[in-house]
Design a protein that fits this description.
The complex is a heterodimer of chains A (about 700) and B (about 270). In chain A, the strands form 5 sheets. Chain A has an 8-stranded mixed β-sheet. A 3-stranded antiparallel β-sheet of chain A has the order 5-6-7, with no helix packed on it. Chain A has about 700 residues and is an alpha/beta fold. In chain A, helix 4 runs antiparallel to helix 5 and helix 20 packs parallel to helix 27. Among the domains of chain A are: about 100 residues, no CATH class; about 100 residues, no CATH class; about 45 residues, no CATH class; about 180 residues, von Willebrand factor, type A domain (Rossmann fold). Chain A contains 27 helices and 18 strands. The two termini of chain A are about 55 Å apart. Chain B is built from 12 helices and 9 strands. Chain B has 2 domains: about 170 residues, Rossmann fold (3-Layer(aba) Sandwich), CATH 3.40.50; about 90 residues. Chain B has about 270 residues and is of the alpha/beta class. Chain B is elongated and about 65 Å long. In chain B, strand 6 and strand 7 form a beta hairpin. A 5-stranded parallel β-sheet of chain B has the order 2-5-8-1-9. A two-stranded antiparallel ribbon of chain B has the order 3-4. A two-stranded antiparallel ribbon of chain B has the order 6-7. In chain B, helix 8 crosses helix 9, helix 9 packs antiparallel against helix 12 and helix 11 runs antiparallel to helix 12. Classes of the chains: A alpha/beta (about 700), B alpha/beta (about 270). At the A-B interface, helix 8, helix 12, strand 11 and helix 21 of A face strand 3, helix 9 and helix 12 of B.
Chain lengths: ~700, ~270
């Protein structure tokens, strides 16, 4: 049981009361009212939130004590994390709004509920929705459950029903409902126009969506009977409890062949009446968002389809040069009565063909928007038509530096989370990363280095050659490809002697295949300028010369950047690139850049390593010091994020190793890389010799 | 040297197989013209069953070899054994097939090492000879010998792809999951479930195939549907049968497993 003084002291520390108007003596009674376990819980979260912003922590504390009566700890945690995510994205005011409104966040409950969190279910539900036919949909967190035609939104917490399983089923039904709105025609292209004839648009939208729900539910129950049963279990006898006129409407909406037009025909007769209670999994329609999303999608998909068709036809022509010059593409109409649509069938000059998967996906998506495929879509793009605005923005995104000279945008950039050790949680999509090529420099660096170190290169090559695919002839085996003559002669002699003949009379080839890929992560921060930069370049050159002997797959990337918005990864050699003059010139072209934010680089390279599918994957860092970026990636924060990224790598099976020239290395490297996974090279000039040597030892 | 009886490899009963295109015709034409065949397609979509069917139809014996990492050339061609102080030559399946004029079927050829596969080259072009260096002879294949291999091009890594010099010697037949109606008929015939259940199983398979590339390496094969069907006929509830026979066979990743089980629970 904590005493008032202890609590005061801790609050003073976390909330920095010295520098603000926060009075901890007002807050202490709130905490004293809790049981010890809850006190620790609230104080711990106050501390964590305070590392992000003290005012959010202060407001959290005021409400948490009350909130614990109505909600379980998991929900409170999700509420706090959600507030910090909102702070990261949108700033203090929006974050405080989230804190102020915990009841809105959780919906409503006076009894302790067992809810599910979006983060807990999104993985499973994302896979689930990918298995449903039609357009590929994404899952995202939203304030309410709704869709814009491409993304399905679910609330952060679902706690309406009284157990986790039921709440999960509810989430699943919301997902299916939104999928059905897209796939079965509720949100068709002229919807806004059709509903705008009504004086009260909002009311018309509500009625339309309720009618459509009835129709969609019966389609779902027919196509997915298991779900139909689950709907009945969660909310039994809904239809029989509706007013009579709605029950009649339900009958016509449930008939096979009912479409959105059926709902539109029924709308006028319901416009004046009260609305019934909606289903638990009901999803509203946001016409504006739907239209905006559709506009962008239509332009994008029309262009993409025509370009893909052109590419596909070109490939077909390559295989069959005798093919007709003029092609007429047409689509087979699908069976209108089936609830399940298979892939669309295309014909080229009347002969049926199976288009590539991406064309099928596009056709499916376009069909959802238009009900069919407009004929002008089936004309392959001509040679002048590949360039559009979208292509030019894509081309711009190819040049990462353009973003800093023109209008800032994040097209073509990759996002990576960062670990906030104070918050003990990730900051989502915190780092904006771009890959750049190192400009190759054709100078004497390569020839000079190879000449100066020719002896060493020869030595390294020999010792690496000895590490290659091991092929040994094992003698005296019980089975094998060939007879071991020596063993046989001895055995026969033994038999003559009256002794037992050995069974080990064969030789076998024993193959040990090296299946190693390694990624080298080279510090290109400003601090490497001078001796260090030169030593790094020499090491890399020697390493490459030796690695070519081994045949391991390897990649070299430099990393640097300034602030989280400008994280840069420099391609020196990709995995699938062959080592030649250009790679050598890029090594020569490595120049010192800015700061050292390590987390994103480790995460990105881990992804690349895992994509290679090799059995043994290594990540080797060449660095000159601690992680460090402009103002916010210093000290413990930087070290902890780097450590977390390395833990993630290790969990996915990657071995991480650090080679540094920083004499202070032993102070922080064991914490990040582990006690045995780093080495300090005392003299910079020794670096070239040591790196190749260390690699040899790591991969023996 | 004891010769295995030819009868052991002959197929006497017609195996159930429904062609989905003209693959049988192409196979027969290739056999008559002494061309080797490459069957391409995902696992469990009927390649081996097709080979059995064609062997029965053409009335030839069929020798099947399942290829793996440790397969050496001598496993295919033959080796010397020591019996009672004497060295005795034992033919491998490839040599035996050539001698018998049988069909030799190498299943999942990519699993074997590339240097092992090179032993096929002289047999797979118009020379049709099998060199046997250890015996110091060559076997000339007769007109009835046929070489067939199968391979799944789907998810092999770059290292495990078929060498061009090997591929370009074969006539390729492409296999894929059958169209829905045919697949349902196959499931009914092989497992004994009723038409509705078979149709639902096929729908379920289509959903899992849609997940390919989104976290799954390969969707459910027809074979897995048959397994699930057999369990159901034996009284196992549908969702449990799908879970054991299909979901658990496709993935170990917990979220994907949960999602696939949710999909089957929605259908059944």
């Amino acid at each position: 049981m904590l005493m008032a003084q202890d609590i005061t002291a801790r609050l003073d520390e976390y909330l920095e009361t010295e520098f603000s108007f926060i009075r901890s003596d007002e807050l202490v009674p709130l905490i004293l009212a809790l049981v010890p376990a809850e006190q620790d819980f609230v104080l711990d979260w106050t501390r964590r939130i305070a590392s992000t912003h003290t005012e959010i922590a202060h407001q959290f504390l005021r409400r948490a004590t009350q909130a614990l009566v109505a909600h379980e700890a998991r929900i409170i945690e999700a509420w706090a994390l959600h507030a910090m995510d909102v702070y990261d994205r949108a700033g203090l005011r929006d974050a405080l709004a989230v804190i102020a409104d915990i009841d809105h966040f959780v919906h409503y409950s006076h009894v302790r509920t067992a809810g599910v969190l979006f983060d807990e279910v999104s993985g499973v539900l994302q896979h689930f929705v990918h298995g449903l036919p039609g357009r590929a949909l994404k899952l995202s967190m939203g304030d309410v459950s709704w869709t814009d035609g491409e993304t399905i939104h679910l609330p952060a917490v679902m706690a309406q029903l009284d157990n986790k399983e039921a709440n999960f089923q509810l989430c699943k039904l919301m997902v299916v409902m939104q999928w059905a709105q897209i796939h079965h025609g509720t949100i068709y292209t002229e919807l806004t126009a059709d509903l705008s004839v009504w004086p009260d648009l909002a009311r018309a939208v509500k009625i339309y969506s309720l009618l459509e729900s009835l129709r969609l539910e019966s389609i779902i129950a027919r196509a997915l009977p298991g779900l139909g049963r689950q709907m009945e279990q969660l909310e039994a006898d809904y239809i029989s409890a509706l007013p009579a006129n709605w029950q009649d409407a339900a009958k016509s909406l449930q008939a096979r062949g009912a479409t959105a037009a059926t709902s539109q025909t029924l709308l006028p007769s319901f416009y004046k009446f009260d609305l019934p209670v909606a289903r638990l999994w009901h999803c509203d329609l946001d016409l504006e968002a739907l239209d905006a999303c559709r506009q962008a999608r239509i332009t994008r998909e029309k262009h993409k389809l025509r370009v893909q068709l052109a590419q596909w036809l070109a490939e077909l022509r390559r295989k069959k040069p005798a093919m007709n010059k003029t092609v007429k593409l047409a689509v087979q109409q699908p069976d209108e009565n089936s609830d399940y649509n298979g892939p669309l069938e295309l014909t080229i000059n009347e002969a049926p063909v199976i288009p590539p998967r991406i064309v099928q996906q596009l056709l499916g998506s376009i069909q959802l928007d238009f009900g069919g495929i407009p004929p002008e879509y089936l004309v392959a793009a001509g040679p002048g038509e590949y360039d559009t605005d979208e292509q030019t923005t894509e081309a711009e995104a190819e040049d990462p530096d353009a973003v800093w000279q023109g209008t800032y945008h994040e097209h073509g950039a990759l996002y990576y989370n960062e670990w906030d050790y104070g918050r003990r949680h990730y900051r989502k999509n915190w780092c904006v990363m771009r890959e750049k090529d190192v400009v190759p420099v054709y100078d004497n660096f390569v020839s000079d280095t190879l000449r100066r170190c020719s002896g060493l290169v020869a030595h390294l090559r020999r010792s690496f050659e000895a590490m290659r695919d091991d092929e040994r002839l094992l003698k005296r085996q019980t089975e094998g490809e060939n007879v071991d003559i020596d063993a046989l002669v001895e055995a026969l002699a033994d038999a003559r002697d009256g002794r037992e003949m050995s069974e080990r009379l064969f030789v076998r080839q024993h193959r040990v295949e090296r299946d190693i890929t390694v990624a080298f992560m080279v510090d290109m921060s400003g601090s490497t300028q001078g001796w260090i930069n030169e030593a790094e370049r020499e090491s890399l050159l020697l390493l490459c010369e030796a690695l070519e002997m081994l045949g391991d797959r390897y990649a070299i990337y430099g990393f640097s950047g300034i602030t989280r918005k400008r994280c840069e990864l420099y391609r020196i050699k990709r995995f699938d690139e062959s080592y030649g003059d250009e790679v050598r010139a890029r090594i020569s072209g490595i120049r010192a850049q800015d700061y050292t934010r390590m987390g994103f680089a480790i995460r990105h390279l881990s992804g690349l390593l895992n994509d290679t599918g090799a059995r043994t994957r290594l990540l080797v860092t060449l660095s000159d010091g601690k992680p460090d970026d402009y103002s916010d990636y210093r000290g413990e924060y930087g070290i902890e994020d780097t450590r977390q990224a390395l833990l993630e790598a290790r969990r996915s099976g990657i071995h991480a190793f650090c080679i540094t020239i920083d004499e202070q290395g032993p102070a922080y490297l064991p914490h990040m890389y582990g006690a045995a996974n780093y080495t300090v090279v005392a003299e910079v000039r020794q670096l070239p010799f040591r790196v190749a040597d260390i690699y040899r030892r790591l991969t023996r | 040297m004891a010769e295995q009886s030819v009868d052991e490899y002959c197929i006497t009963e017609e195996p159930y197989y429904e062609p989905s295109g003209d693959e049988a015709k192409v196979f027969e034409a290739a056999w008559r013209r002494r061309l080797p065949l490459l069957l391409k397609g995902p696992t469990g979509c009927g390649k081996t069953r097709f080979m059995e069917y064609m062997a029965w139809r053409l009335g030839r014996p069929l020798l099947t070899v399942s290829c793996h990492d440790d397969l050496t050339a001598s496993d295919l061609v033959g080796r010397y054994l020591i019996k009672g102080g004497e060295t005795v030559w034992l033919d491998g399946p490839l040599a035996r097939a050539v001698r018998l004029g049988a069909i030799c079927y190498l299943d999942e050829i990519v699993e074997a090492r590339k240097d092992t596969m090179v032993v096929l080259h002289p047999l797979a072009d118009d020379r049709r000879i099998l060199p046997m260096e250890k015996l110091g002879t060559q076997l000339q294949a007769g007109p009835e010998f046929c070489l067939a291999v199968s391979y799944n091009p789907g998810y092999q890594s770059v290292l495990k792809d078929l060498k061009l010099s090997t591929r370009q010697r074969f006539v390729a037949l492409e296999f894929d999951y059958p169209p829905a109606e045919l697949e349902a008929r196959i499931v009914i015939s092989e497992s004994g479930v009723d038409a509705d259940t078979a149709a639902t199983l096929v729908k379920f398979a289509q959903m899992t195939r849609k997940l390919k590339g989104n976290g799954l390496d390969e969707g459910a094969s027809t074979r897995l549907l048959v397994h699930a069907g057999k369990l159901m006929v034996d009284g196992i509830p549908a969702v449990t049968a799908c879970g054991s026979a299909i979901s658990q066979a496709l993935t170990d990743e917990p979220e994907m497993l949960a999602a696939i089980n949710e999909l089957s629970a929605s259908l059944f």
